[in-house]
Amino acid sequence: MGKPQISEIKYIETYYFANMINNILRDPFSYIRPLNDFFGDENYRSFLSPFPKISALHSFIIFIIDSINYDDLSESENESFKRGRRKLWVEIAMGHYDFKFDSFDKWLKENKKIRAEIIDDDIADYFRYLSFYGPYEELLETMSDEIFFVLFLNRKTLQRFNELISHQIQEKTIEEIEMEDLSFFKKDGMLKRVSIPKWVMRAVIHRDRGMCVSCHKDLTGLISVGSINNFDHIIPLAIGGINDVTNIQLLCENCNKTKQAQNIPTSIKYERWY
Ligand SMILES: [Zn+2]
User: Fold this and answer.
1) What averages of pLDDT result for each successive group of 10 residues across the chain (274 residues)?
2) Is 133 found in the same domain as 220?
3) CA of 210 to the centre of ligand 1 (A)
4) Measured in angstroms, how far is the CA atom of residue 230 from the centroid of ligand 1?
5) 262: in domain
6) How far apart are CA 214 and CA 147, in angstroms?
7) What is the pTM of this model?
């Protein structure tokens, strides 16, 4: 076992974005345009590799922050800029994380533009510039990690997210799947079961505090003898669930049977700390 990883959490707009992503997952149809972009034609392919460390939810968070930056922020940022604000939101965020980057003012000067005449597209162009030459991707990744940290604790949100993805997997017929991806699938077009990596087990055990999420039976003893029976896919593989850290929970065998019979993906019961 490696040493525990400690990361600095700086919380810039973390709850704002966590709340926004939560709202999108509660009512995905009101966000159908950005979601179509995310899921696009071939994008289901990004959910096939089992258990990426940058989880499917990380990718989703990055996509949402990025599309908000381009589509919504450009306009409102431009307005507040014209009213005299000195810095763009992205500059404030990068400063917050001590990233080195060229300021918007510097970019304007180099592109021979003046502040009073900028249009929304200039701000989008600056974002593009930052993506190529600056730490914009790094900013998105850092922020996604912090937002993930908040959302990962909420199993209902994870359920909603994984439901959304499962529709993408369900919609694909086996004939539509690319040759090179076939090894991920079973004949019925659903993803194969794979062994769950140790880091996923650890993350899930800690989040669910070593207990069955439904009846709170202690499962830590069983885990130490290497049983994987208690790691359950929140959205089952059989109905399009994916192999992602966000789709795994601790569930005892008894509750697993009840879950199958009653079709209740997860539990929203949590043990109080005091
Ligand atoms: Zn149980």
Assistant:
1) 71 90 90 75 85 95 86 74 81 92 94 87 89 91 95 97 93 87 93 94 94 92 63 95 97 90 87 87
2) no
3) 11
4) 9
5) yes
6) 25
7) 0.89
